Amino acid sequence: MTPARKALRPTMAAAVSVTVLAGTAFGLAPSVQAAAPAPTAATAASSDSASSSGVSLRFVDIPGDGGVKLAANVVAPADADASRRLPLVVLPTSWSLPQVEYLAQAKKLAEAGYVVLTYNSRGFWQSGGRIETAGPPDIADASKVIDWALANTPADPDHIGMAGLSYGAGISLLAAGADPRIRAVVAMSGWADLVGSIYSGRTQHAQAAGLLAGAGELTGRPSDELRQILDDFFSSDLAKEPDLIAWGKKRSPAAQLDRINANGAAIMLGNSWGDSIFPPNSYADFFEKLTGPKRLELRPGDHATAELTGLLGLPNTTWSHARQWLDRYLKGERNGIDTQAPVQLMSRTARGDDYEGYPSWSAVPSEQRRVPLAGTEKITANHDSGANAGTVLLGGALDQFLKVPPLASIPLLPRSRAAVWQTGTCAREQRVRGTVKLHTTVTSDRSDGTAVAYLYDVGPLGVGKLITNAPVTFHDRTPGTPFKVDLELFSTAYDVPAGHRLALVVDTVDPLYIEHNPDGAHLTFSSPAADPSYLTVPVRD
Prior knowledge:
541 residues; eleven-stranded mixed beta sheet; Xaa-Pro dipeptidyl-peptidase C-terminal domain-containing protein; Galactose-bd-like_sf; dipeptidyl-peptidase activity; Jelly Rolls; 24 strands; 2 domains; Rossmann fold; hydrolase; alpha+beta; eight-stranded antiparallel beta sheet; carboxylic ester hydrolase activity
């Protein structure tokens, strides 16, 4: 990570702004934030209550790893007692959210006969300790919470599950590899490869990391290790890259795959195509390698937007499927979710709530369409062409709710700043399904640089709707010497109407990412006869 051309380390003002944006997206009004009482011993003793639906709620303190206090709440059937054991579901909170986050869903689970324990991840809000970013203390905390539940509630030791959203999803998956008592997991809007999510293509995802950094500072107490990792990340110090990768690997479920498979938990994964914090590619790869009962759901939206209405207690398909998954593997109910196709996808252009079922991720596309990228294109770096992938959290949400992805006028893109290739008009609808891949040859007149690839659906008026994108960064290349680039764009499902075109655009600047192009740099994209450039587009009949 050589010094980036621009100083994109987020200022506190920028971090606060993006955190306020995140709070709005998650529905965290100040009144909601204040709703969580400090879970002192006195509170735990006095906060038992039963609603008209027959559900009890109590706020408690739980000793986590090293004795760190974890602020938690227990939601259970009001008549639960030691006379019968009930399945247990543990819900770690999302990054920066308080322990009341899951109360609406916890109530639904308790009404269905579960003991539900939700807790504030260490370092946030009323919990003690510092933010370890799903590090070993967080995983040890999950086991301590299970220990406490078995000792203090009528939880059944043979029927334990974990579920969570975002940060809670990552902790749940990692805990499934560390604690064999966990029999079922639902991981929504999480990650399998942490570094691959925020550092894909060796490119820092600046807005995503800035959001996490700012939210962590405002609502928690980051550890010294996390602050150092973020400093190194934003400073673009290439010498620190091995430390970043090692830090992220320790926090990546993909690195614990063997242990997760050995423990055999039934795992449901859910993510959104436009997740600007944890893109879906690593979930899909991870899913293919799981050997136990498994399910993968991918749908339109941005980070956690598909699950948001469920947190508010409103009808929500993702949370309904999550409860069915837990019912099947913790309660043994034959509800049919395990007989459905294990891969369930919803196209970004679909109307309604219809999923397509596939037997595996590799079976999703029925054909790989190769689009040749002929000729030579030379562009000047450091200038935004007008093509971009939107804004963290908002871009995918607009696509989900309004069917308005990031747009660009393809004819008006300055060819000095953007390389553009277009297909002819499509004679029939093109159902893009899976991971688009770019193979090309690049020549730079500098040793370091960044390029961002975008695939657009271009209508008759030349307006392009973004289908997918991805960045790639190179270091220590010999100036003037061509080199190959193979880039996987973020996985997607999108229907291109008949009469439209596909356009590949490559430029060097995007607000989502840190760029590494020196002033005055030029990038040339060529297609040598011995190794032609092409785009592979996965399509479904």
